[in-house]
User: Fold this.
Amino acid sequence: MKAELNAPVGIIGGTGLTTLSGLEIVGEHPSSTIWGEPSAPLVEGRLGRQSVIFLSRHGNPHRIPPHQVNYRANIQALHDAGVRTVIGVNAVGGIREDMGPARVVIPDQLIDYTWGRPSTFFEGDLDAVTHIDFTWPYDHEGRQALIHAAGGAGVPCSDSAVYGATQGPRLETAAEIRRLERDGCDIVGMTGMPEAVLAAELGMRYVCLGLVVNWAAGKSDHIITMAEIEEAIEQGMSGVKRILTDSMAELGRLSPLPQPS
Ligand code: HPA
Assistant:
């Protein structure tokens, strides 16, 4: 399943990744879509030999909170720029015992607890009602490329986890985290949805590259502080960047999925 032509790979950077060092920048493109403006101009560049479009999810500087990100504009802008494979980098809280701060996690499932966010492209004056398949929210081959790169670079990573997407911007209560845990969530974050489903609606491959930046509420003996989050970002982001760099060529070779009709 390899494509002839290397389409640009999209990287959506979150907390701790508003710019991508190592990206050789070719141009910056302010863009606009029928859903409004994306969070920031699209940064076109090269990571190694692969062309990349980088988008800062919260804007640059970081100013748009998770519940106010225009996810539709972000995904549409990447699609309009020719991107067919997207890596969403997400800072997350760790719930499962082996998912402590600075751990890299590549989830394979999600549960959506967000509400009130525009979460579909299929609305308004439609010709037909569409229900996309979302059994496996994260692209299998894209995940394998990241897992392979992590293994090659010696970056410890968890290759199977359930991502619980919460509304934010506040962090959760300890009881809410216990509930997520009972539901089967291993990590928790505020930006994984509707980003993943919107990419699926446009027929794009989407993979989440998570970095645990704190123990989720009630999972440690202290409250969550920004200092702790910043320390974990400092410790873990180099591994995330290494995985991105080392996986790019393989991601770029993935064939586009059939476009939804
Ligand atoms: N909860 C929700 N979102 C997050 C967390 C958390 O603990 N840490 C980073 N993003």
